[in-house]
Amino acid sequence: RRLNHLLTDLDVGVELEDLRREVTDRRALNELFDVLEIGGLRTRVIEVAAIGLAPGHVDDVPAPVEEDVFGVPDPVVTLGTSAGAIREWCTQHPGRLALWVDGHRYVNGADAHRLVFAQGEQCLVVECGDVDAETDTLLADLLSRGDYVVHDTKGTAHALAARGWELAAPGDDVELAAYLVNPEHRGYSLKELAQRYLSYEFPADEAPEELFSLNAGDEPSLQQIEAGRRAVVLGLLAETIRGTLHTSGADDLLHQVEIPMAMTLTRMENLGIAVDLAFCEELSCELGRDVEDA
């Protein structure tokens, strides 16, 4: 009994008041997860942290704080249903734009379902499946001008190329910039970067990227609004990471090496590699003879 007796008088170094649940420092939490390279658990822990308490608790604790630190605004979506509407929106929003592409971003099977141009919270959403000849020509011209803020230069270019549009070298790539700022992080997806730099969580019921819009009339659909939200976050990330990148002295590395290299790799991947089948067959026969002789 003495051996199994539960000790209740050990000094644990804290008082009862020190154990009271406080509002979570989500930025510090994200930094800890980055160091520990924790992926899936991050989202579940932050979901609990976002409400200040685990479900079912009734303790007297400080009210939860909305930790939208960078004030991510809701997107104001304009639908680019015609070439005229797209021209008008672009005229009203001069300067650098964030460009988000919903779709598949791989070499094989790449496709762009939806384009979103954003400046601040103002977004222009274009459904690629609804594009007519005039709009197609206009979009090709806009995308060829470059200087956009993107996430994943190669993937974005592959998706656009599937529609016959060529992306000029972007002005910023937040994925590459974030890697240059800290190459030790485990992931650089838009969601992870939003958590890391903006302490922002995308809505849990965010619509899947591959869904097409199901809007009624002139009102944007849920999928279009969520695509706009990603474009808004993309623009905020560019502003946030740009300062850190400049401080680290990696501006030239991003714009003179990484982005041009990404564009070169995109062209190489689109072209593929020519295989000399006759030579390969001859080499196979030669290796087969060597095996038999051995």
Quick overview of this protein structure:
By secondary structure, the protein is α/β, with parallel strands linked by helices. Helix content is 46%, strand content 10%. The protein is extended and about 80 Å long.
Give an account of the 3D structure:
The chain has ten helices and six strands; from the N terminus they run H-H-E-H-E-E-E-H-E-H-E-H-H-H-H-H. By secondary structure, the chain is of the alpha/beta class. The strands form two sheets. A four-stranded mixed β-sheet has the order 1-4-3-2, sandwiched between helices. Strands 5-6 form a two-stranded parallel ribbon. Helix 5 packs parallel to helix 9 and helix 6 packs parallel to helix 8.
Which tags fit this structure?
294 residues, alpha/beta, 4-stranded mixed β-sheet, two-stranded parallel ribbon, 10 helices, 46% helix
Question: What's the helix and strand layout?
Answer:
Blueprint: H1 26-36, H2 40-49, E1 76-79, H3 83-92, E2 98-104, E3 111-119, E4 122-127, H4 133-144, E5 149-150, H5 153-161, E6 172-173, H6 174-181, H7 190-198, H8 222-248, H9 251-271, H10 277-293
Parallel strand pairs: 1-4, 5-6
Antiparallel strand pairs: 2-3, 3-4
Residues in β-strands, percent:
5-15%
Number of strands: 6
Q: End-to-end span in angstroms?
A: 74 Å
The whole-angstrom Rg is: 25 Å
Helix content: 40-55%
